[in-house]
Amino acid sequence: DDQTVQGVKVGMMGPLAGVGDPVFWFTVRPILGALGASLALSGSIVGPLLFFVVWNLVRIAFLWYTQEFGYKVGTSIAKDMSGGLLGKVTEGASILGMFIIGALVQRWVSISFTPVVSQVTQSEGAYIDWNKLPKGTAGIKEALTQYNSLGANGLNQVKVTTLQQNLDQLIPGLAALLLTLLCCYLLKKKVSPIAIIIALFVVGIVARVIGIM
Predict the structure, then answer these.
(1) Measured between alpha carbons, how far is 151 from 168 in angstroms, rounded to an integer?
(2) How far is CA 173 from CA 113, 128, 139, in A?
(3) Cross-strand partners of 118
(4) CA 167: distance to chain centroid?
(5) 13-23 confidence digits (pLDDT tens)
(6) Residues 6 or more apart from 100 whose CB is under 8 A from it?
(7) How much is the average pLDDT of 106-127?
(8) Full DSSP string of 67-93
């Protein structure tokens, strides 16, 4: 009867909202937005279209499926929910969210430590001797040819190695990953996102001024 339908609806609002908000508003939508924004930053119109189309497909498909599912199972849905279904959905969404965010760390987070670790004078032939290059287009062609064979280290006679280059040789993107994990830890400890953003600005500016980054 109508009272039973209304009672089940009101009784399930709280538990379902506790899962729906984290899964859709805090996981699926931010992930799709990040993917769309990354494409848009590269100048592709596919970015906003991807976000709009995929988000609405997911939303409409979920609305239709849950409507049919709820109609078929009726009040027995409460037993399924009490059996750990909500916990499994939340856990799966969390795993998916962390996987996508981890893949985007390298693209979105950029840290470069500028302190010089070593300076080594390279032997002749290991770098481009700009004074000996021919003039005109022939010199440009020769410089490009030597650059292709020597790489970026051959641009100068003195090879400069920074702290960031050493870190990249060990584990590329390690600093960016550690910073992301730190932010996640602070958010888990209920630190305000605004405070974290301000702290990142302050640390970045100070590190830039004193020559660390």
Answers:
(1) 17
(2) 12, 30, 36
(3) 161
(4) 20
(5) 776 776 677 77
(6) 31, 34, 35
(7) 73
(8) HHHHHHHGGGHHHHIIIIIHHHHHHHH
